Automatic annotation (TrEMBL):
<dbReference type="InterPro" id="IPR021230">
    <property type="entry name" value="DUF2810"/>
</dbReference>
<protein>
    <submittedName>
        <fullName>YibL family ribosome-associated protein</fullName>
    </submittedName>
</protein>
<dbReference type="Pfam" id="PF10928">
    <property type="entry name" value="DUF2810"/>
</dbReference>
Length: 118
């Protein structure tokens, strides 16, 4: 299971535990309330760990791209015909500034990273 799916499952569990906690509080069941508070704390801790792992992987991927020999912003014409560009440049990685990776790297324009000049 990848991190994105695991994170989604943890958020679903957290939501379920919060609903059950609210119902137990309405009933006044102290033992069940404490159990769900422990479950919520454990799930929140796991969510934070998964997010930290995602951030480390994203930073590592961004660093690998920054270490590539060549990078430049793509023109509108190149962006319009991305398939042709990717076929002509071996190893090209295109990063859009609105993706997680693009925001992490601080990009402002669509940028191409490649081992050789293109």
């Amino acid at each position: 299971m990848n991190l994105k799916q695991e994170l989604q499952q943890m958020h679903d569990k957290l939501d379920k535990f919060r609903r059950k906690l609210a119902a137990a509080e309405q009933r006044g069941d102290a033992a069940i309330v404490m159990q769900f508070k422990r479950e919520i704390a454990a799930t929140t801790k796991r969510i934070d760990a998964i997010k930290g792992q995602q951030n480390r992987l994203l930073g590592k991927e961004g660093q690998q791209l920054k270490d590539m020999a060549f990078r430049r912003e793509l023109t509108k014409a190149e962006q319009a015909d991305m398939g042709k560009l990717k076929k002509s440049v071996k190893g090209l990685v295109v990063v859009h500034p609105m993706t997680k990776l693009g925001r992490e790297m601080g990009l402002e324009k669509v940028t191409g990273f490649a081992p050789k000049a293109f």
